[in-house]
């Protein structure tokens, strides 16, 4: 792999590793239900920004790694991430022209779909969880999206300037 190609992939790999670490990191019991879906947010950003490079295949691999790291049903997060990333890639051109408030509403819908798929799979597997465990990450992720989007856009812009 050439240096230029490695330099282009480094921010994506680094942000996914940080997102995975933030997802696995233990939090106090009162705050844990409101932990944003870091991996889903980062995958939405990269699928939105670079849809040809980071799409459903990467989402599947990251989802399997997330399933193993969290000890959930194998394929649960992989399926949910694939669906969300597919929709992001499919509609990324329309989403690019959205104002930030409408883009945040779209991210809310994507995160709600992600949590619904996890809820559905857990229901089929007879795994119970309180409602706040599904809605807390959606609300916190939506509120965090504009800040995360600006931060990640800055990282992407700086890397493009160097390359």
Oligomer: single chain
Task: Provide the CATH architecture.
Answer: Orthogonal Bundle
Mean residue pLDDT: 92
Using only CA atoms, what is the Rg? Answer: 16 Å
How many runs of DSSP E, i.e. beta strands? 0
- Major beta sheet summary: none
Overall 3D form: globular
Q: According to CATH, what is the class?
A: Mainly Alpha
Order of helices and strands: HHHHHHH
Overall SS class: mainly alpha
Assess the beta-strand content as a share of residues: under 5%
**Helix-residue proportion:** over 70%
Please give a structural write-up.
It contains 7 helices and no strands. It is mainly alpha-helical and 163 residues long. The protein has one domain (3-162): Arp2/3 complex 21 kDa subunit ARPC3 (Orthogonal Bundle), CATH 1.10.1760. 26% of the residues are buried.
Q: What's the short version?
A:
This protein has a single domain, classed as Arp2/3 complex 21 kDa subunit ARPC3, CATH 1.10.1760. It contains 7 helices and no strands. The chain has helices at residues 3-24, 38-49, 56-70, 76-90, 92-96, 100-124, 132-162.
Produce the secondary structure layout.
Blueprint: H1 3-24, H2 38-49, H3 56-70, H4 76-90, H5 92-96, H6 100-124, H7 132-162
Helix pairs in contact: 1-2, 2-4, 3-4, 4-6, 6-7
């Amino acid at each position: 792999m050439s240096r230029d190609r490695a330099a282009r992939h480094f921010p994506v790999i680094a942000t996914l590793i940080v997102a995975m670490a933030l997802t696995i990191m233990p939090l106090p019991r009162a705050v844990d239900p409101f932990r944003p879906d870091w991996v889903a947010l980062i995958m939405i950003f990269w699928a939105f920004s670079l849809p040809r490079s980071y799409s459903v295949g990467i989402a599947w691999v990251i989802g399997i790694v997330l399933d193993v790291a969290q000890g959930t049903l194998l394929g649960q997060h992989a399926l949910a991430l694939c669906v969300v990333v597919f929709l992001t890639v499919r509609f990324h051109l329309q989403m690019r022209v959205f104002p930030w408030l409408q883009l945040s509403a779209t991210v809310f819908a994507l995160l709600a779909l992600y949590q619904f798929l996890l809820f559905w799979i857990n229901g089929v597997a007879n795994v119970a969880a309180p409602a706040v465990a599904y809605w807390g990450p959606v609300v916190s992720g939506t509120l965090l999206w504009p800040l995360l989007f600006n931060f990640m856009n800055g990282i992407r812009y700086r890397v493009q300037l160097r390359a």
